[in-house]
Amino acid sequence: MSEFLTIGEPIALFGSEEVDKSLKDALHFQKFLAGAEVNVAVGVSRLGHSSEYITQVGKDPFGEFIIDRLHENKIGTDYISETADFWTAFQLKDRVSDGDPSIFYFRKGSAAAHFEKEVLDKIDFSEVKMAHLSGIFPAISPAAQSAFRYLIELLEKHQIQTTFDPNLRPQLWASTKEMVETINDLASHAEIVLPGINEGEILMGSRDPEAIADFYLNNGTATKTVIVKLGTEGAFVKLKDGISYTVPGFKVEKVVDTVGAGDGFAVGLITALIEGKELKEAVIRANAIGAMAVQSPGDNDGYPTPEQLAEFLKNQKVK
């Protein structure tokens, strides 16, 4: 039994150790545990909260690596199935001195893409306080999307607060139209929606934070809060009752890798809400962990312990 749960596809990530060298030319890589939802589970666990991860991996070295890393991070694996019929996904990521890194996936037809939703009937929801969903898992296959929608039904039945991050991965969808329609439909079931400003432009045609927030607040009756991630500028918050405000971001001296920042934002928000913090304080923590994440090369290596988070908040200045 855990306070937090999520569903997704865990990935063995090979990150290049050679700066500004293409994936074609890079020779030296370091292996990490990756995947947007698993990043959130890692961060939540690292801050001292019980966390459960739902997925399927292959009976292969990458699957074994993922299970081992989850155990090391004290993440529950009771709802992870294993199959010898399909392989575990992996990916390559280059290392850049500026901007976003390039990523190449090896995940089509993976073990997680063949996840069977009957596994979800085994979940004990009795102590779950929050669940985090993202737009990646439903993109990897029809079976995954069916399971994702069934999990939403179960979360609604058990009245569990849910966050939803669009986490757009256009390369996983058949078309932009299908991606936009499906993501917006899934978002309508979440109490808290977490779009980025670039995602807002793709999903509803505007880069205006308030317009993005209004769109999702009116997208479905379940959504009570929208938090638009503004990158280095922080986050814009708007509630169903019309209250809105911006929470500034934190200064970062050196950006090493931007991947995982949005997931770190979710970690900060979710853990603060589980602890009963006020929403504004939760968004401050979210911004802080997002800023910490971009200063490390792995997708989740920069996520803090409670002591590291307290030290960061003590010493860092808001942008």
Summary tags:
alpha/beta; 4-stranded mixed β-sheet; Ribokinase-like; 2-dehydro-3-deoxygluconokinase; 14 strands; 319 residues; UDP-N-acetylmuramoyl-L-alanine:D-glutamate ligase; kinase activity
Provide a descriptive summary of the structure in words.
It is built from nine helices and 14 strands. Strands 1, 4, 5, 6, 9, 10, 11, 12, 13 and 14 form a ten-stranded mixed sheet that branches. It starts with a strand and ends with a helix. It is 34% helix and 22% strand. Helix 2 links the parallel strand 4 (51-58) and strand 5 (75-76). Helix 1 crosses helix 7 and helix 7 runs antiparallel to helix 8. With 319 residues, the protein is of the alpha/beta class. It has a single domain, classed as UDP-N-acetylmuramoyl-L-alanine:D-glutamate ligase. It comes from Enterococcus canintestini. Belongs to the carbohydrate kinase PfkB family.
Query: What fraction of the residues are assigned to beta strands by DSSP?
Result: 15-25%
Q: Could you tell me the number of beta strands?
A: 14
Low-confidence segments: none
H/E series, N to C? EEEHEHEEEEEHEHEHHEEEHHH
The CATH architecture category equals 3-Layer(aba) Sandwich
- Helix coverage percent of residues? 25-40%
The number of helical runs is 9
- How does the overall form come out from the CA principal axes? globular
